[in-house]
Amino acid sequence: MDNKTCQDHIDHNRALYIFYSSVVVVEFILGLLLNITVIHLFVFKLKFWKSKTIDIFLFNLVLADILLLIGLPVKAYNFQQCSEDKVVCKVQLFLQFLNRGASIAFLTVISIYRYFSIVHPEKRKDLRILKQSPQISVFIWVLLGILTIPAMLQSFIRCDSSEKDELNELNRLNVLLREIVFFTQIFIPFIILVYCLIRIIRRLKQKSVGDKTKLRKAFLFTSMVLVFAICFLPYAITRAVQLKIIGTVMTEEKVTVVKLYDGLVCLSYLNCLLDPILYCLSSSKFRKLYISMYLPFLLKKQQPEGSEDTADD
């Protein structure tokens, strides 16, 4: 939609978009505080570069979430007023796509690593490629940076775009590539996560370990898939519907879909707030360190040192 149409749309739904903007601001504040504390522990306490393979992937996951959160103030502003600066809008979208893609990619790699560790522990030699975690991390960032370039080359829904731009063959190719990357980085990882969850739960039922350990691991992976599904699937499906009905005239149907899409965008940012809880704090070692550093008043409620199984690390 063009800038005037976008502004009219927001003006007619001012209360709703003020609420959206407030939600984004809250997610920004809470998510940034939580992720910064996690980064602090990784860098100054755990020295992640000297730690286990999984710690390097976790660090990159949190880094991607922080970089995504940094752009949220601009997003909150755009929920209330369409940006007149096309370049700023495209840069913000590029960073959004890049860092959300990186967050999903590292989340998927971590899930695959833990899948092999739990379901196929006897095949640790097959994990040698994952031992090259620094190189894999750099590769993921570079690859996603290249694949996200189309977000900078062609207007997006909120970047003051005009339909005549779509007539250019090169622009059509950019749009197609951008949407392929967008949907691929959500649906393929979700399929992988569901597969890993099913196999892990089956394996945990077979292993002769304590019920508490099995429940903890099953809850972790189930929560991981649920959070991913809630944050990203409705957002991606609504995006597909929005692409189908996009046009220069804002009919009532389009207004409804745009409002729903914008609300689900807010929901998708919740992932940045939950990632450190579900993945970083799933390690008993990290959890104890985090509580002792930032929540010492909870220490008296913790179990004795030897009573907690550390098999979830």
UniProtKB/TrEMBL annotation:
Highest taxon listed in the record's lineage: Eukaryota
Pfam families assigned to the protein according to its UniProt record, in alphabetical order: 7tm_1 (PF00001)
Domain G-protein coupled receptors family 1 profile: residue ranges: 34-279
Leader sequence residues: none
Family annotation (InterPro entries): GPCR_Rhodpsn, GPCR_Rhodpsn_7TM, HCARs
Compartments in which it is found: Membrane
Alphabetized UniProt keyword annotations: G-protein coupled receptor, Membrane, Receptor, Transducer, Transmembrane, Transmembrane helix
Family annotation (PROSITE patterns): G_PROTEIN_RECEP_F1_2 (PS50262)
Designated name of the protein: G-protein coupled receptors family 1 profile domain-containing protein
Organism, scientific name: Cirrhinus mrigala (Mrigala)
